[in-house]
Design goal:
Elements (H helix, E strand, L loop, with lengths): L9 H12 L6 H18 L2 E7 L2 E6 L2 H20 L8 E6 L12
Parallel strand pairs: 2-3
Antiparallel strand pairs: 1-2
Helix pairs in contact: 2-3
Amino acid sequence: MRAARGPQRLSDTLSELVALKGLAKSGAAEQLSQAWQKAAGERIASETRVVAVKNRSLEIEVASAALMYELDSFHKPGLLETLRQQPGLEINRLKFRLKGSLGQSDGSGG
């Protein structure tokens, strides 16, 4: 395994996670995304996206600063508890980071 530094593609990071956990046949990336959607609920899931898992820390991109504050200040413990209850997921922390426009094409307006 390489000791790469710097930004990594989500697909590469999730592939590593799948390989390390031995979950390649069970669709770990899809499981992780579904677990987040279930924990977060429809409203929050539509404005967020799982971007990485590093050292048992789940990194989530958030569409707005207001939602990021809400998640970090009010929902973090409940979200983490719900994620910990999912079989096969070993998440100890949630990290939220701001992403300007999820789901929109880049280019205009930004």
